[in-house]
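[Automated response] Your request has been received and processed.

Submitted sequence:
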Amino acid sequence: MAYPQQRRVLVVEDDDTIARAVATRLTAEGFDVRVAGDGEGALLAYARFEPDLVVLDRLLPGLDGLEVCRRIQAARPVPVLMLTALGEETDVLVGLGVGADDYITKPFSMRELVARIHALLRRVDRAVQLAAEETVLRVGEIEINLAERRVFVRGAEAQLTRTEFDLLRRLAERPGQVYERERLLADIWGFSEAAATRTVDSHVRALRRKLGSEVVRTVHGVGYALVRP
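Generated structure:
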């Protein structure tokens, strides 16, 4: 039985063993969980269950995870954590490009999965708080509307995912300041494991692709900074 404050998570995974393990762990963590084993079933469960977050496998029978993510975000945007057995950067960027907020590569630990889910939901809660404010950050030709979570570059709107927006906002708070990868992991994703810094790198590349290659500066061996105008 789901309680009023219980967060709902939809797990979309065609491997029954993995799906059961994830559902069991998330249920133990206090989440209300539903499971779907293919793309069509995921869309049906999404419409009926109205989850607060979706854990989505990249490779699914029928509709693949990318198409499911596109349709989910078009219907009612929610945070999506994508599971992938594909380690190539191109595959990760494609997933982020269709609306995934974060990704985790198989095999993964349940502890890390739970940590990332909690971090995504905390970001959603912070976004709701910011929505009450009419705050706009401007850095050079970039305008960041915090209340509406919209970004404009030279007047044209850039379509960012939830995570890309949060990362840009963090960097824009202090243009020119160098943020270590581990610090960005802690601030945006809610954990700071050195092995996961590739997550930051992938999202920075996505930002550069959408906002311009010179927007974010790399400080080799340290981290990133938003270029000061």
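Summary generated for your ticket: The two ends are 53 Å apart (CA to CA). DSSP finds eight helices and twelve strands in the chain.
If you did not submit this request, please reply to this message.
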